[in-house]
Amino acid sequence: MFLSYLLQRITNAIFIVFGITTLVFLLIHIVPGDPVEVMLGETASISDRKTLRESMGLDLPLFQQWTHYISGLIRFDLGNSLHSRQAVSEMLLDRIPATLILSISSLLTAMLIAFPLGILAALYKDTWCDHSAMFVAMLGVSIPNFVMGPLLMLVLALWLGWLPVNGSQGWPSLILPSITLGTALAAILSRMIRASMLEVLQEDYIRAARARGLKPMRIYCLHAMSNAALPVITILGMQFGALLAGAVITETIFSWPGIGQLLIESIEKRDYPIVQACILLISVTYILVNLLTDMLYTIIDPRLKLK
Amino acid sequence: MKTAFQSFAMLVFLIWVILATFATLLPLNPDLVMLDKILIKPGFAEWLGYDDLGRPIVDRLIMGARTSLTVALIVVTISILVGTSLGVLGAWLGGVFDKIMVMVIDLFIAFPGILLAIALAGLMGPGLMNAVFALSLVSWVGFARLARVQTLTVKQCDHVLAARALGTPVKRILIRHVLPLIMAPLIIEATFALAGVVIAEAGLSFLGLGVQPPAASWGNMIRNGTTYLLIAPHVVLAPGFAILSLIISINMLGDRLRDTLDIKEQGNMLK
Questions:
Q1: How deeply is A100 buried, as exposed, middle or buried, from its count of CB atoms within 10 A (0-12, 13-18, 19+)?
Q2: Chain-centre distance of CA B101, in angstroms?
C-alpha cells in the first residue's frame, strides 16, 4: 500500500519534471531574442551568423532541437554559456553551495522565530501575547524581501554597525540574508503552528497527561509539540519553493553568489542556456523537496501508513 | 480592537486607491528633475524629500501607486476570468478536457510562480506589458484550481440537478446556479492575489525587469535608492513603507472578508 503510493508519487514527479523541462524549452524558443545575435553582436555578417547557427543546431526544426536538449539533459549536459563558453553544469555547481547554505540557514532562522511565536500565541490564546505575536506574523507576510533586506541592512549594518553589509565575510554575512529570506516563511509557519497547537491542546492525551500531573513544560514540549509539528512539515515543503524563488531577490540585494544571482546576471546578458538551466534546477529541487516531505510525513506519522 | 485595526486598514487601502485613481488630476511632477534638490531629506516644506535626480518622492510615490494598482487590477481580472472559466468548464465537462486541465494545473503549481514570471519577463525583455503578461500567466492557476474544486461540489447540489432535469441551457445553469455559489472563495482568493501581484510587480521592477525608468514604480524606486542607502535612506524607506502599508491593508481586508464570507455559513444559508 505504502509502496504503491510511493511509486505513484514518484511517477507523478517524473511526469512533472518532464513537463517543466518542455515548458522551459518552449518558453526560451518562443520568446523573441536571438542567441546568435547575443554572441556575435549586431554588426556580424550574415554568413558568420549562418555558420554559427548551423554549428549550434539552431537551424534544425523545433522538435529535433527539443530531442537534442532532452538527450543532453539526461547526460547532464546543459550546454555552454553563450558568453564565456564555459559548461553551464560547471557554473551551476560553482553556485549551488552558496544558495544551499542560504536556504538552509533561512529555514532554520524561520523555525527559530516561528516555533516560540506560534507556541506562545497558542498557549496564551486571546491575550495581548497572542495578538501581538499574530500582528508580528501579519507584518512578516506583508513585508516583501526587497523591503526587508534594505531595512535590515540600514539599521543593523549601516547605523548600528553590528553586521557586515553583504556577502563574503564569513558567517556573520549570512545573518542578514537569512533573516530577510526567512521572514515570510517564519510568519506563515507561526500562524500554522498556532492553529495546529490549538487543535492538539484539545486532545484527550493532553488532558490525560495533565491529569497524570506532568509538568506543563513537558506536556507542551513533548506531547503537544511532536503532534502539532506534523502539518507544519507539509507547509515547510510547500513553502520551500517560495523560499527558493525569494532567494533570487535576496541574493541580488546582498550580492550573495548563488543560483539566483547567476539567474539575474544571465537574464541581463541574455545568456539563454544558463537561464534555462537555473529555472530547471530550482524547479526540480522544489519538486524533489515536495516529494521528500510527502515521504517524510508518512514515515513520521505511522497512522498514515496504516490507512 | 481587531475591528478598529481592520477599519484603519480599509481607510489606508481607500486612500491609496483614491490617490492612484486621481493621480493624473493632481498637480504632480514625478519626472521633474531639480538639480539643486538632489537627495534632499524629508522635511516640512520638502514633504518626503527628493531622490538622486532631485525628483520629488511624494509625486513619484503616488504615480508608483497608480502603476502598482493598475497592474494588479489588470492581472487579477485576467486571472479571475481565465482561471474561473477554465476551472468551471473542466469540472462541468469532465472527461478528457478536465484531465488535461488537471495536468496543466498540477504542472503550474509544481513551479514557483514568481520564478516563472522572472524568467519570462527577463527573456521577453523588461517592460510593463511583458510583466503583466508574465504575472497573468502564473496567477490564473490558483483561480482555476479553486473554481474547479468548488464546481465539482456544487454540480452535485439538488438545485443544479433540478435545473438540468428541467432542461435549462448549460450557459444559464453555470451563470445563474453555479457561479453565485462559488463566488465567495474566489473573491477571497482575489484579495490575496491582489496583494501577491503588487509584491510581484514591485519585485520584478526591483530586479529591473518590470516598469522601466523614468516611469515610477515602487520596485524601481527601491532599486534606485539602495545605492544611496547610507547617505539618503529616505529614498528607500518611503516606497518601502508605502508598499508595506498597502500590502498589510489588503491582507487585513482579505482576513476580514474571509471572516464575513465564511463558506461554512453560506452552507447553512442553503439549507
A1: middle
A2: 24
Residues 259-288 of A with CB under 8 A from B: 263-264, 267-268, 270, 272, 275, 279, 282-283, 286-287
Residues of chain B with Cβ-Cβ distance to A283 below 8 Å are: 110-112, 115
Q: Which three cell numbers stand for residue B207?
A: 530586479
Provide the 8-state DSSP code for A81: -
Domains of chain B: 2-22+51-270 (1.10.3720.10)
- Biggest alpha carbon distance in chain A? 87
pLDDT score, position A233: 81
- The answer to whether B78 and B133 are in contact (CB under 8 A) is no
* Spatial separation of the C-alpha atoms in residues A212 and A217, rounded to whole Å: 14
A chain contacts of residue B112, beta-carbon cutoff 8 Å: 241-242, 244-245, 282-283, 286
The alpha carbon of residue B45 is apart from the nearest alpha carbon of chain A, in Å, by 25
Q: Which residue of A has its CA nearest to B110?
A: A287
Instruction: List where CATH 1.10.3720.10 sits in chain A.
Output: 96-306
What residues contact A290, with CB distance under 8 A and at least 6 apart? A13, A237, A238, A240, A241, B110
At A121, list the grid cell: 500565541
Interface test with A, best of B133, B201, B207, B255 (most A CBs within 10 A): B207
> Which of the two residues, A70 and A262, has the higher pLDDT score?
A262
DSSP A80: B
ipTM of the complex: 0.86
> How buried is A261 (Cβ within 10 angstroms: 0-12 exposed, 13-18 middle, 19+ buried)?
buried
Residue type at position B104: V
In chain A, what residues touch B247 (CB-CB under 8 Å)?
142-144
Whole-number Cα distances in Å, B239 to B34, B40, B64, B242: 20, 16, 9, 5
Among A30-34, A231-235, B1-5, the range scoring the smallest mean pLDDT is A30-34
Q: What is the pLDDT of residue A147?
A: 94
What's domain A96-306's architecture?
Orthogonal Bundle (1.10)
Give the Cβ contact number of residue A222 at 10 Å.
13
Mutate to test the interface with A, among B100, B114, B123, B248 (most CBs of A within 10 A): B123
Q: DSSP 3-state assignment of A242?
A: helix
With cell 507544519, the residue in question is: A232
CB B122 within 8 A of CB A267: yes
Q: Which residues pair with B236 in a beta bridge?
A: none
